Amino acid sequence: MTQRKILIVDDELSVRQSLEGWFREDGFAVEIAEDGKAALAKMHQGPFDIVIVDLKMPGMDGIELQKRVREIDPHAAIIILTAYASVETAVEALKLGAYDYVTKPVDPDDLSHLVGNILKQRALAEENVRLKEFTTLCNTAPIVGASAPMRHVFDLVDSVAETDSTVVIRGESGTGKELVARAIHERSRRRFFPIVAVNAGSLAESLLESELFGHEKGAFTGAQYRRKGKLELADGGTLFLDEIGDITAKTQVDLLRVLETKRFTRVGGNREIESDFRLICATNKHLEKLVEVGTFREDLYYRINVFGIDVPPLRDRRDDIIPLAEFFVEKYARAMGRDRKPLAPETVELLERYRWPGNVRELENAVERAMVIGREGAIVPADLPLQLERQVVPADTSLAAVEKQHIERVLQEAGGNVTRSAKILGIDRATLYNKVRRYGIKR
User: Which residues in the chain show pLDDT less than 50?
Assistant: First the structure.
C-alpha cells in the first residue's frame, strides 16, 4: 500500500526536526515547511494525509493556512499546534474543519495517538468505498470447464496469481478473458481490495483518459465535480484493462509512464497521485503484429507482456459446451424464478455440433433466450436463437465464412438494428460496422 504522508508546518526549527524524526521512525513519509508559503508549495506537489500546522507563525498564520490547505485538498486532516494562551483560537480552527488541536510543548506520544485515530477513521472510510466499488465492479462468476485446454489455463492462473507480475490474457471475443482476470485476482494477495475493470475498446481517447486518471472539477465542460479514476480506485488491488490493443498512441505513452512510476495526475490537475495496483490486460488482437506495423509501442508491449495466458475458443474445448450450457440453465432458472429445465437429447447434439463463433458469450445468450421463450418441459432446438441447426457448417468451412453467415443471420433477426445485433454478438457497434464492411454484408 501507498505510504502515508504527513506535512509539518512550524516556524521553530527544533519542533520541525523533532517531529520529522519521530514520524519517520513510525514509518511515515514526512515533509517539513517553515511557513505558510512553503507549506502551500508542498501541497501543490502532492497530497498529504495529515497536515500539522502551528497556529502562530509570522506572515500567514495557522488559521489562514488551514483555509488555503482546504481549498487545495479538502480531504487532508489538519491538526493545529497551539500554546495554552491561544486555545480559543484553536477552537475557532476546529469550527473551520480542523480535526483536533495539540497544546505546546508537544508530547510526541499524544500526537502519535491522535494521528493513529485519524488514520483508523480514514482506513474505515476507504474500506467502505472499496467495498461499494467491489460490489459494483467485481461480479465474480466461476469458470466452468474441465477440458484439457481449460485445465492448462487453470494451471497458469495458479502459477501467476500469487505474484505481482503483469499478465496479458489473449483470446477471441466472448471466450471469458475477464473471468480469467478475476480468477487471478481472487487467488492473489490483493483479493481483499477491488479489481477495477476498464473496457478500453469502447471509449474514445478523451473519455478513456478521464476514466483511467480521473478529473478535477472544471477540467472540461460538464466536469462539475472531482472524480477519482480507475487507477486510483484500484489502489491495493488490480486494474483489468480490456482490449488494450485498441488504445491510442497518446494513451499508450501515458500508461507506460504510470506503469514505470505508479504515479499520475488527474485530468485538469497538477498534483501527482500514487497508486499501488497490479495490471492485467486482455486483447483479442495479436499485439506482436501491431508492434510490427507501428500501431502499438514496442516498449509498452515488453512492459506488459511479462506473463501470457491464451484462452481457447469454445470450438477448441468442445467437452465444456454441455457443462457450460447446464451452468447457464441453472443460472437463469434462479434469476427468473423458474424450474431448471433439462437439455433435450437433440438439443445436446445440436449444441455440440455448432461451431460457436461468438464463443461462451454466444452460448450464454442462446441459453438465456431459450429459458425466456421455451414452453416445453425441456429445452428443445426450437427454443434456440436463429435456428442454430441451420447454421451448422462443414468442418472445412473457414472461420471468416462462418462469422459472415452468423452476422448476416443476427442482423436479419434484429431487423437490421446494429445496436441490438452488436449486443447479441457480444461486440461493440464499431466492431460490427467494420465486419459488415469487410464482408460486404447488406443490411
Answer: 132-140, 387
Write the CA distances from 96 to 13, 65, 86, 101, 311, integer angstroms: 27, 11, 16, 12, 56
C-alpha distances out from residue 23 to 27, 301, 402, Å: 7, 41, 66
- Record the cell numbers describing residue 334, joined without a space: 434462479
Give the integer Cα–Cα distance in Å for 263 and 237. 15
Residue with cell 489502489: 235
Express each pLDDT in 19-75 by its tens digit: 999 899 888 999 999 999 999 999 988 789 999 999 888 889 888 999 999 888 888
Q: Structure pTM?
A: 0.59
Q: Give the residue carrying C-alpha cell 497458469.
A: 156
Cβ neighbours of residue 264 under 8 Å, at least 6 residues apart?
213, 229, 231, 254, 257, 258, 272, 273, 275
**Phi-psi category of residue 222: left, alpha or beta, with phi > 0 → left and psi -120 to 50 → alpha:** left
